[in-house]
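Thread title: Can someone regenerate the structure for this chain?

I was given the following input by a collaborator and told the matching structure tokens would be attached. They weren't. Posting the sequence so someone can regenerate them.
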Amino acid sequence: MRFPSFLIGVFMVVQPARAWWDGGHKAIALIAYDHLSESERAWVMTRLEAHPTREELFELPLREEFASAAPDADTRARWFFAQAAIWSDLIRRDGGYPNAKEINAAHHHSTWHYTDLAVFPDNAARAALAAKAAPPPMDWQPGMTEPEEGFNSIQTLRRLLHELADPARDHGGQGVNLCWLFHCLGDTHQPCHCAQIFIPEKLPDGCEGANRIMILGLKSAQPVLTSDVLHAFWDSLWNDEKNGLADVSARLAPLKADAALWSKGAEAARELDPLEWLKEGHALAESHVYSPALLRRLASTSAQPNTRSSRGGNVMMVSMTTLDRDAYVREARFVSRQQMVTAGLRLAAVLKDVIARSH
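Best answer:
Regenerated them for you:
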């Protein structure tokens, strides 16, 4: 199936992956906040208040969001937690906020946001692209030098969980570490940050976490989307036009009545190994991101060369029946609810752990 060339251009204007976007990351942080004690929240806030970009990326946007009146202490702390969760995405840009170029140069690390394990549509594809099945390095040890290509999300999480428990580290640096912990943990619970599919002759170099796959018409299911790129759809599942503290809190409220959701999340929160989180995300990518319905469409669709990016490679645009697309969206929303709750409870659990070890 071939598509007009202008659609290729629409496809490739999509920006690099940003898991969950603001609404999702903030929701995870707020769930964690609600499951910490006052002293644990204070431990986090002491370090966020010492953050080296506090004025530019905390105080200034806080004043903009609460222009009418300064928030009380609890609301301020909630807001700081939510902002910490999106800080790693804010600094991707080297403009749009004070001292942006310097902050971006000092703190941005694009590879820390994901660890892609291979997915194959069938055993024949796995055999044909066997070299792609090898997992990336995920070990981290104290004193380890970051390679030129950068650490991935699992190496980063292991470093953070070690360093945050070190009482000798300065609070400002720990504030930066907390922001990365909040964000990378959230990223690891978005399945597109855990996997990419490889298809012989079509996507032999992978799909970059579903950034090279489009389901036509998918954006109609999400008003905030401007394209049908699959990764962006998963990112957007907890976003709306407004994603301030009150807006995200209101979106979380209906979840609190779902006892099964929280029970399953609490059980999952006992697992504190980031590698196990990655395996779970990879399994969800196999079952839900690259669903059987999508695999059928990919099998019958031709790949298109990516002529709009210096990275090259192929892109794939597929159509689905309305019935299949609606079912895909329903399942994605169901998965995202559980992943959001699980991630929030795990964030609270790892914070409790590092705080206990820091004393």
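Residues 1-17 have pLDDT under 50 and may be disordered.
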